[in-house]
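hey m, so remember when u said the tokens were messed up on ur end? i reran from scratch. heres the input so u can diff it against urs
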Amino acid sequence: MSDPFLAILTTARWAQFLSLFVLFGVLLFPFYVTGAAPAPCRERLASAMRRAISFVGAVQPLSILAWLATSMASMGDGWTSLRDADFVKAFFLEAGFGRLWLTRLLLTALLLGVLVGTRRSLPARNLPTAVALVLAGALLVTQAGVGHPAGLRPDERLLVFGGYALHLLGAAAWIGGLLPLRALLAQAKHDDRAHDYAQFALGRFATMASVAVALVLLGAAINMRPQIATLNVSDLSSWWWAAGSKAVLFGALIAIAYRNRFVLTPLLATQPKKAVTNLLRNVMIDQGLAVVVLAVAAFMGVASPTG
């Protein structure tokens, strides 16, 4: 793949990851943080979440179209292939990944329809939010079929697809949930009435994040097994260096999460101002690290583990 195609494809995959992670995490948030927030806090939190949904809801279809178009162009004779009816027909109807792309486009259209048609009902513990959540999750899971796992032997493919699903869903729940958590902490920093609710939400988020991290690690272990089996340590590719960088960044995320849960959250009862300020700072750092992690993951999706 030429450098321009590689750059566009990596950027498109990164935008797709980021938009779906935010969507999934934000839509999931009301289902585990179930308590009623104080009125001003509730309104501002809902407003922040709706703005995020609107933005990433627009980025997601644009990024998936860019990903698809670049993939097709790189497999054909460049961008002119997109105007070749026979090539387009063969891509979508004669290959298994082409039919999966059609499924992903359908899921994207359905998701966009739900987000636009029920935008005033989102996000909340209701049916439109649940439907949008399932569609976003399905789009995350089906990414495995258009990535490296699709090239595995049939006996390995299903297991790795499952691991990929666990990895992405866990990571999306955790990373995407940081956005409403940040909005809540920002409100608590300036409004003492939000402190009790912030403490409640942090406890619920921490419980969810513990499960999410376990899913991320389990999924990663399953995904890496075929790669490790063929690893030649004397000839490490850029993919492996990226994988190492991703592991280090993920370790930093876990270290910050540990401090948030076991050091800063208990301080809310005795030193709320200091605790909220430090928690807000750490959540913002988490979000920055997450953006870099997703960029590395996007690169790993287009690079080859064998160099």
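this time it looks ok to me. The radius of gyration is 20 Å. if urs says something different then somethings off w ur setup not the seq
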